[in-house]
Design brief:
Blueprint lengths: L1 H13 L3 H6 L2 H42 L7 H13 L4 E6 L7 H15 L6 E7 L13 E7 L5 H12 L11 E5 L5 H9 L8 H14 L5 E2 L6
Antiparallel strand pairs: 1-3, 1-4, 2-3, 2-5
Helix pairs in contact: 1-3
Length: about 230
Amino acid sequence: MGKVSEILDVLAIRRIPMKMLDIMNAQELEIYKTSLRMQIDMDLKAQALKEVLISRYKAHYSMLLDSGDADDILPIIKELREKEDKDFKSDYLFITVSPRPPFNIESQKKFINICLKVFNKPWIKQYCAVFEQRGETDENSGYGFHMHMLLNKGDYRISHLRREFVSSFNRICDTSNLSCFNISYCKEEDIGKRQNYMIGRKADESKWLKQDMDKIWRRRYGISEYYGELFIKP
């Protein structure tokens, strides 16, 4: 608190016009500084609260957008979503799903079981999926486990797909957080690149240790190298 108080004192002094400093005695100056310091403190707290509320509302509306429930709040969202579906003809999607902590064995099993059920959605024409983790040593093996999935959705609407995925994963994932739940279109010419990202050697060398640990982690818990069917045969 000492440093914070010093900063507030400096800010308070900077708000006092120089002419007033010349005519104020020590007692008056201290009273004035205290008053300004309290006002600045309130301003900073209000700003911090505002930033927190903005963050919360972003997460809330992100969830509504993903689930399709924002259509009633902003009808233009529905128009944009339908235009997006119409303009982009690709049937292929690349999806990443990352569960929220804790990253323990129990939540790992629960996450994998949910994914296996999702893989069997009747509208999925073809898919290839892998489970990965972010640990690089045996001590942190399994930390940050997540799933990548390349799929052919056919003519199934992206808005319906989002809603189904949010419903399937909301028990174990923070589906309002884009870093935990992400869906993106994949052009047909990029299918090979996406598939290689999942089952091949990643171009980023800094991820190679993690990939090596992926193999050990999968063997340890009986997780397959990949699930589904390869889009491009080796």
